[in-house]
Amino acid sequence: MSDTPTYASLLARLFSGSPEDREAVMAHLGRHPAQAHAVEPEVRDRLRDEYPRTRTIAAEAMLRLFGEPEPNTRAFSALERFLELLDSAPVLTPSRPALDPLALSFQLKLLWLSGYLPHLTSCAECGADDAPLVGYSPQAGGAVCRACGVGSLPLSPAGIGGIETLLREPLASASNAGLSERAARDALRVVTASYEYHGGFRLRTLSA
Ligand SMILES: [Zn+2]
């Protein structure tokens, strides 16, 4: 890539290019933090406004650019698989693309690849494994019990089960995971809270 690409050309290759284009753009932006911050507002806008395909590219870009310094080839493999599936499968909840189980599954897997997988099997704050988990705390890194849950985001048992299912099952099975709307909303809340806490950015209009 040229040493002085325009921001428009960077964005065009990031959102319309091949996976190799995206990889090259991400690598370039990783070496030029000032340019990464210059394109950040556009990436944010796309996260907020666009359709699932573009949005997940934007989400991935945000995780890559502002989540960790190293390129993550496994994230790109997941992204490629996700895009294949998105092209071949209908979105089941077109009125709320953010609740599409495939998009949620993809984003949860990205969080896992980024090392930000929410801990859901015991209280992430006190470690209790015999208390019902009632909330999600990005600061604690996962679900928390009632005693530790002050200020946490509400998380239902269906939501915890749904997130575990989406993480366990391959992307191709996400749309058949039987996610209730409540579970999908909880999963979206965990994803957006994790983005905000770990990536430092908000998805205001995507919040459930
Ligand atoms: Zn606790």
Bound molecules: zinc ion
Tell me the β content. Answer: 5-15%
Helix content: 55-70%
Strand runs, count: 3
Mean pLDDT comes to 79
Q: State the domain count.
A: 1
**Looking at the structure, what is the overall shape?**
globular
Structural class: mainly alpha
What is the helix tally?
A: 8
Termini separation: 39 Å
In what order do the strands lie side by side in the largest sheet? Answer: 2-1-3
Any idea what the radius of gyration is?
A: 17 Å
Low-pLDDT regions: 203-208
SSE pattern, N- to C-terminal: HHHHHHEEEHH
In short:
Helices cover 56% and strands 5% of the residues. It has 208 residues and is mainly alpha-helical.
Task: Describe the protein's architecture and organization.
The structure is a single chain. The chain is mainly alpha-helical. The protein has one domain. It has eight helices and three strands. The protein has helices spanning 7-16, 19-31, 33-49, 52-67, 73-88, 101-113, 157-168, 181-199; strands at 133-137, 142-145, 153-154. It has a three-stranded antiparallel sheet, covered by helices on one side. Bound molecules: zinc ion. The site of zinc ion has 8 residues, from strand 2.
Keywords:
single chain, 208 residues, mainly alpha, three-stranded antiparallel β-sheet, 8 helices, globular, disordered C terminus, binds zinc ion
Fold blueprint:
Elements: H1 7-16, H2 19-31, H3 33-49, H4 52-67, H5 73-88, H6 101-113, E1 133-137, E2 142-145, E3 153-154, H7 157-168, H8 181-199
Antiparallel strand pairs: 1-2, 1-3
Helix pairs in contact: 1-2, 3-4, 4-5, 4-6, 5-6, 6-8, 7-8
